[in-house]
Amino acid sequence: MPRNRNKTYEEQRISRIRMYGISVADYERMLQSQNGGCFICGKQPATNRALDIDHDHATGTVRGLLCSTHNRALGLMNDDISLLLKSIKYLVRAKWLNYIKPILSGK
Fold first, then answer.
1. Topology of the domain comprising 1-76
2. Average pLDDT along the chain
3. In the beta sheet, which residues pair with residue 50?
């Protein structure tokens, strides 16, 4: 959502929160339950930056708060669990091959 430069940061934050059908108190409860950080990596946002409100695009249901990097990553994977699992399998396989190759070659 493009930012309106005429609004203060706090006004923009409240607008984004309400856009997803939750209250500021709901957002703050979610933030507290996540120890103030992204649900995936745990990193806290920089000053004057709020965590993204992650939601199911099909139902609109809010799932949690994510840093912009992980929110975009899920979006790029189209929230497709099978695609995410294949990505994990790919990363594990690559890690395993990098580990086992030197052993098999005797290095």
1. His-Me finger endonuclease fold (3.40.1800)
2. 90
3. none
DSSP three-state, residue 18: helix
Q: pLDDT band at 8, cuts 50/70/90?
A: confident
Q: CB of 54 within 8 A of CB of 65?
A: yes
Provide the token pair at 55.
Answer: 């939601």
Give the Cβ contact number of residue 17 at 10 Å: 19
Q: For 102, phi and psi rounded to 5 degrees?
A: -60, -35
What are the boundaries of each domain within the chain?
Answer: 1-76, 80-107
Burial 58-77 (b: 16+ CB within 10 A, else e): eeeebebbbbeebbeebeee
